[in-house]
Amino acid sequence: MDLEHLGESLARVRATSPLVHSITNYVTANDCANALLACGASPIMSDDAAEVADITSICGGLVLNIGTLNQRSIEGMRVAGARSAELDHPIVVDPVGAGASALRTRIATELVDTLPVTVVRGNMSEIKAIAGAAASTRGVDAGPDDAITRDNLESSAEFARELAARLHAIIAITGAIDIVADETRVRAITNGVAMMSSITGTGCMLSCLVGAHVIASFDERLDAVVSAVACMGIAGEVARARMDALDGSGSFRIYLIDAICNMDAPTLDRRARVEVL
Amino acid sequence: MDLEHLGESLARVRATSPLVHSITNYVTANDCANALLACGASPIMSDDAAEVADITSICGGLVLNIGTLNQRSIEGMRVAGARSAELDHPIVVDPVGAGASALRTRIATELVDTLPVTVVRGNMSEIKAIAGAAASTRGVDAGPDDAITRDNLESSAEFARELAARLHAIIAITGAIDIVADETRVRAITNGVAMMSSITGTGCMLSCLVGAHVIASFDERLDAVVSAVACMGIAGEVARARMDALDGSGSFRIYLIDAICNMDAPTLDRRARVEVL
Amino acid sequence: MDLEHLGESLARVRATSPLVHSITNYVTANDCANALLACGASPIMSDDAAEVADITSICGGLVLNIGTLNQRSIEGMRVAGARSAELDHPIVVDPVGAGASALRTRIATELVDTLPVTVVRGNMSEIKAIAGAAASTRGVDAGPDDAITRDNLESSAEFARELAARLHAIIAITGAIDIVADETRVRAITNGVAMMSSITGTGCMLSCLVGAHVIASFDERLDAVVSAVACMGIAGEVARARMDALDGSGSFRIYLIDAICNMDAPTLDRRARVEVL
């Protein structure tokens, strides 16, 4: 598998239908479950410490999303993370709103510091908060000073690569331009449309898709993450193109899940815009 | 009311608009509430032990769904169940993911053993877990060995009937073929489409519809459950037929709720495929 | 700004994109977040006492919705409310289901009695429960005896104005006719369609829109509330007009968010039906 064949990552998800355990926020949990089903995976949501070890044991991997974090789900994340680590399962961390509260920053940092995390996926403000860098978070959105642009692409890429090396994890920073980095390689993905920030949950859904792809193609996990990111961006483009004059963000959200559902490997290969940095 | 007049069950739901108290998971709670409204009932969601007795007292019945089970909702289910029992309200149990964790199996078993449950609705793996039989659960989906087919229909029907006798409850096992059984009677319903397993929540929504139908027609509750199951299956067929080339699971989910909303008694009578086993 | 220029309130929301902290129920949290984004605001949901003071501090205002109330969210509401009060942030209270349980009535009453609430938005049964008046609540819906009609409009308006004076808050009572009152002024808004009560969450979404409008136009907050109420009603009309024969409540819900997304100030000004009482 290489960058010419991102579609293979999607094909593997559909062929293996990985079970993905998500501990996630209640705002976008339904979209996350439906996005996982749309891409060919199977979702299980469970956050109580009394059962998460059982649940994660029957799954292929774990996605930890800290939106609407609470004392129960924090304990659930710790127990599930420890069990996932024992089982060598891929773990994806989505640090929703890291930087927006001391609790979120502390728990996100704890998760990436104590668990053998495979991927961290967030916007630049959230990733900066985890890195201990000054961030300009605007709640759960990236602050305006944290936009990834052509002008700062090189320094953003280097920041991602350095953090990947420090955390021994793939770092996926999504925005107008998406960056995916491991310790030695950095990719930029330029798929996607501005409309994606007009609905809640695109980031949360993407983190789940990343989980599904990484479980299905663990040995080529950098490409698997790139594939998931490109897939979501292309789905956004397809959904946007379908909108008519009366459609707005409500229909766009439905069309986005439709487009994930109807995405096939050749389309993903043909439309993905990936640069090697 | 008999099997020729399933539509009467739906008509009674619309005529009486039963208030249904649901203690349910946060993944599909919105779909459950909207499905209840679409079928003519009124939803109330409430899971805290400090208020569930009050809430269930003003309702016509209770639906307990153990997805995203947690210590708070478990306590809420116990208190609400006890109060519902005192009031002789119908109680529906949906053992989401029973078999997938020891906690879910234990709580599902506790609920059906300690409460005067009217209906248990799940997939075959979940129902087997409750029955203490060996199941091949795949998370919240039935395992492949647990599919109901023409080949095992007779033995599946007998299993359902025996469990119904043991639990003094109607057992509804849904899959490619649906089975509804009480101590002496078994029905098979063959409505529905495969697409229904491409979205999360069809089972959860169905359990809520079952609750609404059973409240509205308690004296003919076997037929009421059959009516709810057929109604959901036909809604799936209507939704599937409406999909165009760009539509996927996102639109299907919306069309499904539309079809529940637009279902009428004559359509239900005409399209229901029910066999007496 | 005056009643001829309600659109200005919407324009200010879009120009300033206020961050709105919502502590809300898990049934409609997704719709609330998407409605806020659709009207031009930014949502943050967070309910744990350990972080709500941080979260609310970076926001422009707070919306407290007591659906699916629980011990954790109650504590979160108290802490967030106290911090919001210190910061002089607008606070909107949505007493979902007040009157349906002693807990909801008590907490709703506590919130409006102890916090410097800017707006209380509910149906007539919920508002009566807060006022300590006899109400005919039907769960989370207004009881039939609590409908606002032409016949009782004058007495309903006087009830709202008196409660506004007592609570030093704007009272918004929504139904077939909506009433918005402060201590001296009362407005009636007659936009909207019956279909809005066929989906869950229109009230919850409206309370969030009210929050966004009041943050953006605090000095003209009565008009801001009227603007949000009219905006939601017009969105309902637009969504209803768009429905075809196969569409039902599922599509209506999507079209409603589309219509909020596509609403512009001239449309709001032209279509708003507001009476000075």
Automatic annotation (TrEMBL), chains A, B, C:
Coiled-coil residues: none
Annotated GO MF terms: ATP binding; hydroxyethylthiazole kinase activity; magnesium ion binding
Keywords tagged on the record: ATP-binding, Kinase, Magnesium, Metal-binding, Nucleotide-binding, Thiamine biosynthesis, Transferase
Entries under Pfam families matching the protein: HK (PF02110)
Catalyzed reaction equations: 5-(2-hydroxyethyl)-4-methylthiazole + ATP = 4-methyl-5-(2-phosphooxyethyl)-thiazole + ADP + H(+)
EC number: 2.7.1.50
Record InterPro entries: Hyethyz_kinase (IPR000417), Ribokinase-like (IPR029056)
Positions that bind ATP: R121, T174
Highest taxon in the source lineage: Bacteria
Co-factor requirement: Mg(2+)
Keyword ATP-binding: yes
Pathway assignment: Cofactor biosynthesis; thiamine diphosphate biosynthesis; 4-methyl-5-(2-phosphoethyl)-thiazole from 5-(2-hydroxyethyl)-4-methylthiazole: step 1/1
Biological-process GO terms, alphabetical: thiamine biosynthetic process; thiamine diphosphate biosynthetic process
UniProt keyword Magnesium present: yes
Enzyme class: transferase
Positions annotated to bind substrate: M45, G201
Family: Belongs to the Thz kinase family.
Matching NCBIfam families: PRK09355.1
Function: Catalyzes the phosphorylation of the hydroxyl group of 4-methyl-5-beta-hydroxyethylthiazole (THZ).
Name of the protein in question: Hydroxyethylthiazole kinase
Organism listed in the record: Coriobacterium glomerans (strain ATCC 49209 / DSM 20642 / JCM 10262 / PW2)
Gene name per UniProt: thiM
